[in-house]
Amino acid sequence: MSIEQARFSERLEVVFDIEADAECLVPPLILQPIVKNALKHGIMSTKLGGKLEIHAYKENQTIYIQVKDNGVGMTQEKIKGILEGSDPTAGIGITNVNNRLKSIYGTSLQIESQVNLGTSMVLIFPLGGDVL
Fold it and tell me: Which of 65, 76, 78 is nearest to 107 (CA)?
C-alpha cells in the first residue's frame, strides 16, 4: 500500500480501521487480490482517483475484513460472473479468493457494488476449530 500511495498520492486516499480484537491468522495472499482489484479496477479507473478503506472487526466468534472503494463499481451480473469464474473479461484472483474461503472456512466472499459508486468486498473468518 505504501508504494501505491507514493505513486498516486494526490489520487489515492487510504484509510485503515482495524479493531484491536480483530486478530486472526489468514491464508497468505488472500487479501492482496482484493486490494489490487479495488485499486486497479475501482479507483484508478477514474481520472480523479478515490478512497480505499480497509476495515477489520470482530463480531461474536467471527472476524470480518472489508475492503471498500468509491470507484467505478460494477453490475450484479459482473459480480456473479467473477464469483463463478464465468466472466471472460475477469481474471482469476477474486474467484480464487472465493474458492479458498469456501474450502478452508466454509464462507463466501461477500460483494456489494453499485456502478459509479464503488464496491465493498467482505472476507469472513470464523474463529475456533481447526481451520488454517
Answer: 65
